[in-house]
Amino acid sequence: MRVERPVLVHVVHRLYRAGAELLAADLARSLSDEYRFAFVCLDEVGPLGEELRGEGFEVRCVERRPGVDLGTIRRMAEVMGDLGPSLVHAHQYTPFFYASSARFTAGTPRVLFTEHGRHYPDRRKLKRVVANRFLLGAGDRVTAVGGFVRDALVRNEGLAGSRIEVVYNGIDTRGFGSPRRGREEVRRELGLGAETPVAIQVARFHPVKDHATALRSMAHLTVSRPDAVLLLVGDGECRSDLERQVDELGLRRQVRFLGVRDDVADLLAASDLFLLTSVSEGVSLTLLEAMSAGLPVVATDVGGNPEVVEDGVTGLLAGRGRDVELASAMVRLLGDASLRRSMGGAGVEKARSRFDRGRMISAYRALYDAMTERGVLRLAC
Description:
Glyco_trans_4-like_N; Glyco_trans_1; 18 helices; Glycosyltransferase EpsF
């Protein structure tokens, strides 16, 4: 008996190469034999969206305007009516709001709402708490990428904890432990010496990632380790401000802007530690990638970071915005190769045991099956 693939629509802000969007793309690529996936972007298609179009996925954009845009609700309802999904998977709160609101005019199906992270500062808003009682239907489901995110949904969105399932982000942990090129080759390409202390930060240039604190930390670090280098991988709205800060701090020789790269595993293998200075975080994919590559981590003690980084075991945590503390942690790790190896090894074990991609995909597949008719049809076959 041949089972027709149900249509499943991912709703996102935009399809850039960021955590929520990469997860949505990974699920679509991995489960396309069982579901027919499409994507609806609120704001713009983005480079990942164009890539997905090239692979044959349908990608639409409803061109949301600032504020609460009633026109977006109407356009969302029209798109959903055209696509005819059996399930809508909304990534982050605003996509959930518009996907759920469209049901009042289009009768769109059940919604799976996945929260990936939280804004900072994160405050409870009574209007949203009340609205959520109407937006979240009886047949809808909610997932959070970590315990911190789940608690925030209960505390600040008024959602019942019993309705929220934690599904940790997952990556190909084995792949990041197997770079295509060796450490020496990559360092030669970057003009780095074999013994140069190298920290790396992989994150979009956005205020929530707080690269400004990373640069201040680097300025403190170079007092005792003037030969240290920080590799910044990524791009975004804050780049010009960060380049200006690098000049003001006199760090042009120590900080390298590498842009968006497709050889992150190679760059991690060429580095000595991973740095993440976010003011808020869900479960960072780049943290998981670094740990899978065997790198010890220095990160801010915010959001889901403590769920990923075990302080003193897989890395070192410091307070939000505490550039001196972060610099001290980097000095400690760069001065102790044995500690780096120990923490790196512990990070690999934790990443593989808790944050494996296969486990994540299986969890979402089970949710999809439970929320559509596919689970019933699978048993009938």
